[in-house]
């Protein structure tokens, strides 16, 4: 067994490196660490994101096996500001904002349809919330 220490980085395939870089910088506050010809490395709140440009990329079918979405922790205090920013930037919100799983959540798509979530809860809160829901049903 390998002892995992955490997530090292997330690599996201995008159709246009420049517009995607701008999106992640504007929405997540990501900072450029490195920029190559077809890739850019960003730091988003301590999470390392690598955007790789794929020319003539086709969107993934939602019924395909693969990553469904990824979520970033946002404080309860900052959550309303995060939702407001999404709306001001005309970002497509796919779910929420709602309270779910022990916290507030809002899901949205990046420019290529990759789903991202802002979530205020913790794993412990989510499991406690779901355990209570299972006891009721």
UniProtKB/TrEMBL annotation:
Tree of life domain: Bacteria
Keyword Metal-binding among record annotations: yes
Domain VOC stretches: 6-121
InterPro entries: Fosfomycin_Res_Enzymes, Glyas_Bleomycin-R_OHBP_Dase, Glyas_Fos-R_dOase_dom, VOC_core
Keywords associated with the record: Metal-binding
Keyword Transport: no
One Pfam family, short name: Glyoxalase
Database matches in PANTHER family: FOSFOMYCIN RESISTANCE PROTEIN FOSX (PTHR36113:SF6), LYASE, PUTATIVE-RELATED-RELATED (PTHR36113)
Protein name: VOC family protein
Species: Fictibacillus norfolkensis
């Amino acid at each position: 067994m390998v002892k995992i220490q955490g997530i090292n980085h997330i690599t996201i395939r995008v159709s246009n490196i420049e517009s995607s870089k701008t999106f992640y910088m504007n929405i997540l506050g990501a900072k450029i660490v490195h920029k190559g010809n077809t890739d850019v490395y960003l730091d988003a709140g301590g999470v390392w994101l690598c955007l790789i440009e794929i020319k003539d990329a086709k969107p993934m079918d939602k019924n395909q096996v693969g990553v469904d979405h990824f979520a970033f922790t946002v404080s309860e205090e900052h959550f309303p500001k995060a939702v407001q920013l999404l709306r001001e930037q005309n970002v497509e919100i796919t779910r929420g904002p709602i309270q779910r799983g022990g916290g507030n959540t809002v899901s949205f798509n990046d420019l290529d349809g990759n789903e991202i979530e802002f979530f205020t809860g913790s794993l412990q809160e989510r499991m406690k919330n779901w355990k209570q829901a299972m006891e009721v049903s």
